[in-house]
TrEMBL record:
Residues 40-331 form the GH18 domain. Its EC number is 3.2.1.14. InterPro entries: CBM5/12, CBM_sf_5/12, GH, GH18_Chitinase, Glyco_hydro18_cat. The lineage of its organism: Bacteria, Bacillati, Actinomycetota, Actinomycetes, Kitasatosporales. Gene3D superfamilies: Carbohydrate-binding module superfamily 5/12, Glycosidases. This is chitinase. It catalyses: Random endo-hydrolysis of N-acetyl-beta-D-glucosaminide (1->4)-beta-linkages in chitin and chitodextrins.
């Protein structure tokens, strides 16, 4: 997958011998096994470098399963993987462990993904960076046991697709892990996320799968990047998804002649990009496209529906970006279309939406304003929604009346400012908590004429790179970066996150 965001043959005897050596090196390992993923799963990509909580966005969006992007080495030549290649984000319970446990406790799970555009173009994809097959396998095993997960994803594209030595090492390492898992009663699935043409894999993608077959490596899912065709043509993205998947089906039928049509379709996944993708408007995936792809995926019985990325699933924010689809719409529109796929049925669960009207306003310090918070049933039947509001800076108070509604009802957001409020623009977040999920909406408040103390640190900017010790101002507070960061909003990374709150300005 394109991480432009922080910004895209051994013989069987040899394999068997290597597996025996590696199993001895691994030792027995823990016997418990993670819960296998459903046969049909919606698992959108989650941008792990943003500072967002995967558990919170999973609950808010209704996406019970997430594909976590990405794991890679910090430097070329290393055999140690980190989240986003950031040495401050090791494979450990301290990094996403609590979030992943929470998601699993709700009946969902995550799929850690290795690679991605940046890793694949900088030789920091683990199998390109590390030349020791056993060490690569140890990294895979560490992710599996640390987070108790049942699938790993390999996002291999651009340069990494043509590195035959890395492809062979990766497949050999996966085979070692599969043998270890089988010996310890674990169900481990492997998915390959690969770029595609409108009619299926290019030859280098086919060669990667051919190498897996020759190494005895089981590939459970081939996940097509059904966007970013880069052919300078205008696309119907839903139709092209279907033709690309049919081409993959034909390839898989040749590679796995013993599988039935149902089994072959059950090896296929597709990943879309909500709205305008990073090629441009000629490749725009609409909600109508999403509904067509959903119905097609159900009819074919494919394994995985996904999109890049969960943080993009919101509209009406100007242009396509890390945090916006670039087309009109509400937050979680695409998630709500795809989420029922996980159950393998079109029967929806109870769900709702939250919206503020108006969604922004300007207030002179000492004055007040209101906004209507509307809820609506988006699936199933109405449920009780408890409402809270956060994000008000010093000198501003925000309250809701009532604080609990039945989905379909509304509440009034009342905002009062004092003369001591600091002039500036602030984001208030209204969160609705229901029995099955949480959803939120934002209200952008601009305060003018305040006589409160002004922040002296430069305002935080999402596209700026900050290093440890640098200070910024955001929503009336001063924040200090603990380490390198970009795109992580102060106040959203938690107590152990990158930003330290130094208090109100």
């Amino acid at each position: 997958m394109r991480l432009l965001r922080t910004l895209r043959a051994a013989v069987a005897a040899t394999v068997t011998a290597a597996a025996a050596v590696s199993l001895t090196a691994f030792g027995a390992g823990p016997a418990q096994a993670a819960t296998p993923l459903p046969a049909h799963v919606f698992a959108p990509y989650f941008e792990a470098w943003t500072g967002d909580s995967p558990a919170a966005l999973s609950a808010q969006s209704g996406a019970k399963h997430l594909t976590m992007a990405f794991l890679q080495t910090a430097t070329s030549g290393s055999c140690t993987a980190y989240w986003n290649g950031d040495t401050g984000m090791p494979i450990a319970q301290s990094t996403f462990g609590a979030d992943i446990k929470t998601i699993q406790g709700r009946g969902g799970d995550v799929i850690p993904s290795f690679g991605g555009y940046t890793a694949d173009t900088t030789n920091t994809e683990i199998a390109d960076s590390c030349t020791d097959v056993n060490q690569i396998a140890e990294v895979y095993k560490k992710v599996i046991t640390t987070y108790d997960i049942s699938r790993l994803d390999m996002d291999i594209e651009v340069d990494a697709l043509d590195k035959t030595a890395g492809i062979d090492r990766r497949n050999k390492a996966i085979k070692l892990v599969q043998d270890w898992a089988a010996a310890n009663g674990r169900k481990i699935e492997i998915s390959y996320t690969l770029p595609t043409t409108t009619h299926g894999l290019a030859e280098n993608g086919v060669a990667l799968l051919r190498n897996a077959v020759s190494n005895g490596t089981r590939v459970d899912v081939v996940n097509l990047m059904t966007f970013d065709y880069y052919d300078n043509a205008t696309h119907n993205m839903a139709n092209d998804t279907e033709t690309a998947a049919q081409g993959l089906y034909n390839t898989l039928a040749q590679l796995y002649p013993g599988k039935t049509p149902t089994q072959l379709w059950g090896m296929i996944g597709v990943t879309e990009m909500p709205g305008i993708d990073d090629f441009g408007a000629a490749e725009t995936f609409t909600l109508a496209n999403a509904n067509q792809v959903y119905n097609w995926a159900v009819s074919k019985g494919i394994n995985t529906l996904s999109f890049w990325a969960l943080q993009r699933d919101r509209g009406n924010c100007g242009a396509s970006s890390d945090s916006c689809s670039g087309i009109p719409g509400n937050q979680w529109d695409f998630s709500h279309v795809f989420a029922p796929f996980t159950s393998g049925t079109t029967t929806p669960t109870n769900d709702f939406s939250v919206q503020t009207t108006p969604a922004s306003g300007t207030v002179a310090a000492g004055s007040s304003t209101t906004s209507t918070v509307s809820t609506a049933v988006t699936a199933g039947s109405a449920q009780t929604v408890n409402l809270t509001v956060s994000g008000a800076p010093a000198g501003v108070s925000a309250s809701l009346s009532p604080t609990s509604v039945t989905a379909g009802g509304s509440s009034t957001l009342a905002i009062t400012t004092t003369s001591a409020a600091v002039s500036g623009t602030y984001t208030l977040t209204v969160t609705g908590a229901g029995p099955s999920a949480n959803h939120s909406a934002t209200y952008t408040l601009t305060v003018t004429g305040g006589n409160g103390h002004q922040c002296t640190a430069p305002p935080w900017a999402s596209g700026t790179v900050y290093t440890g010790g640098q200070q910024v101002s955001y929503q009336g507070h001063t924040w200090k970066a603990k380490w390198w960061t970009t795109g992580e909003t102060p106040g959203t990374t938690g107590q152990w996150g990158v930003w330290q709150d130094l208090g109100a300005c």
